[in-house]
């Protein structure tokens, strides 16, 4: 039982770490396109790891009902497909509307 | 074990507050739309964690629904900002 | 559309929707199951060609190869996030954004979508534009090394072409 608690703690901790790194990247990067790099990758994996940890906790604590675990697995799959698609859609809209990309040496926007 | 979920929810809330600065002060509309999309994704994760903290299994359905609504909302915003209109 | 393909499309979309109904409700008495079957059959007869498009050969082999491709992609996602975390938390923030453009030989819809999703989830690159007629991709890279890995090595294009058998 202690092993399961350790695995769940590790997964939840890693997920929260990646989520916070994504938010810090949103504040720190100098341009719109680079900020989408930070959030589009880190937020997806962070959320996926937190939900995965919750799934393993459910499997061992509540003598796993299969339906809830299937629902959470579908939620992880949906986040992995939907987040990069939304990132790509808004990046395409910004590129077509004429937002200039940032090069090394310019000032922050 | 329940305090672990409480701490996770607190850190996710901290991440949301950091994103709120970019939603308010981002120069232009695209930064704000990206920040709102990130807050929506973090909301679905927070709903799942709260479902385990309060021991209510119906929060997972709400999380699934809100993930879909957030995705569709961001796509509609991007389509409008690209073309200047929704229907041509 | 021929009758065989139409029946296959109706049955496949009916099966997917029935699976979703059972997944989301979780109640197995007669009233819910029968109302679920009625709703799924009406929806799948009216709009089955939105979900299952056209014809394609060897669907089973493509699905199996897709299942083998997914663990490699998950490993690339983890590598991508460690790379982004390094660039965010470094005090000097080593980024050098550049926009590159390349062409592929893939032409099918699903394979182009898979390649665009994989480019967005791998270290350092995000897809901006896809032109389906000539297979042209416009990609924004955050530094020089991931851009070189995408242009010169072309491992990802080869893997996706292997999964969909070069459509």
Description:
The complex is a heterotrimer of chains A (109), B (88) and C (167). Chain A is mainly alpha-helical. Chain A has one domain (2-97). Chain A has 3 helices and no strands. Chain A is elongated and about 55 Å long. The N and C termini of chain A lie far apart (51 Å). In chain B, helix 1 (2-25) runs antiparallel to helix 2 (29-53) and helix 2 (29-53) packs antiparallel against helix 3. Chain B is flat. Chain B has helices at residues 2-25, 29-53, 59-83. The model of chain C has no long low-confidence stretch (mean pLDDT 83). The two termini of chain C are 21 Å apart. Chain C folds into 2 domains: 3-50, no CATH class; 59-163, no CATH class. Chain C is elongated and about 65 Å long. Chain C has a 3-stranded antiparallel sheet with strand order 1-3-2. At the A-B interface, helix 1, helix 2 and helix 3 of A face helix 1, helix 2 and helix 3 of B.
Q: Helix- and strand-based class of chain C?
A: mainly alpha
Count of DSSP-assigned helices of chain C:
6
Q: Oligomerization state of this entry?
A: heterotrimer
Distance between the termini of chain B: 54 Å
Fraction of residues in H or I helices of chain C = 55-70%
**Major β-sheet annotation of chain C:** 3 strands, antiparallel
Q: What are the segments of chain B in which pLDDT stays under 50 over at least 5 consecutive residues? A: none
Number of strands of chain B: 0
Number of helices, counting only DSSP H or I runs of 4 residues or more of chain B: 3
**Which structural class matches the secondary elements of chain B?**
mainly alpha
Strand order across the biggest sheet of chain C? 1-3-2
Basic shape of chain B: flat
State the end-to-end CA separation of chain C.
Answer: 21 Å
- Gross morphology of chain C is elongated
Write down the secondary-structure element order of chain C: HHHEHEEHH
Which runs of chain C of at least 5 residues are low in confidence (pLDDT < 50)? none
């Amino acid at each position: 039982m202690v092993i399961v608690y350790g695995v769940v703690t590790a997964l939840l901790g890693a997920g929260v770490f990646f989520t916070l790194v994504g938010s810090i990247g949103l504040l720190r990067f100098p341009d719109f396109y680079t900020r989408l790099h930070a959030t589009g990758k880190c937020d997806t994996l962070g959320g996926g790891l937190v939900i995965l940890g919750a799934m393993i906790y459910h499997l061992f604590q509540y003598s796993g009902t299969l339906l809830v675990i299937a629902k959470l697995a579908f939620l992880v799959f949906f986040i992995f497909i939907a987040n990069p698609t939304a990132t790509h859609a808004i990046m395409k809209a910004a590129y077509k509307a004429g937002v200039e990309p940032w090069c090394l040496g310019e000032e922050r926007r | 074990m329940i305090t672990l979920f409480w701490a996770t929810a607190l850190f996710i809330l901290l991440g949301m507050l950091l994103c709120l600065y970019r939603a308010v002060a981002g120069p232009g509309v695209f930064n704000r739309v990206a920040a709102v999309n990130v807050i929506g994704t973090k909301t679905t994760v927070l709903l799942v964690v709260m479902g385990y903290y309060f021991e209510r299994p119906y929060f997972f359905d709400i999380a699934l629904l809100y993930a879909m609504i957030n995705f569709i909302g961001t796509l509609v915003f991007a389509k409008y900002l690209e073309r200047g209109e929704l229907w041509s | 559309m021929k009758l065989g393909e139409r029946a296959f499309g109706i049955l496949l979309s009916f099966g997917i929707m029935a699976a979703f109904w059972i997944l989301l409700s979780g109640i197995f008495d007669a009233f819910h199951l029968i109302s679920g079957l009625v709703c799924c059959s009406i929806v799948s007869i009216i709009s089955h060609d939105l979900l299952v498009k056209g014809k394609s050969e060897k669907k089973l082999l493509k699905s199996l190869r897709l299942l083998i491709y997914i663990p490699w992609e998950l490993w690339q996602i983890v590598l991508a996030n460690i790379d982004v975390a390094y660039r965010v938390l470094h005090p000097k923030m080593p980024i050098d954004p550049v926009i590159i453009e390349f062409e592929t030989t893939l032409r099918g819809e699903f394979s182009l979508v898979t390649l665009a999703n994989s480019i967005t989830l791998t270290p350092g690159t995000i897809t901006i534009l896809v032109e389906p007629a000539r297979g042209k991709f416009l990609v924004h890279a955050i530094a020089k090394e991931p851009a070189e890995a995408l242009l010169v090595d072309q491992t990802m294009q080869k893997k996706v072409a292997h999964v969909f058998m070069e459509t």
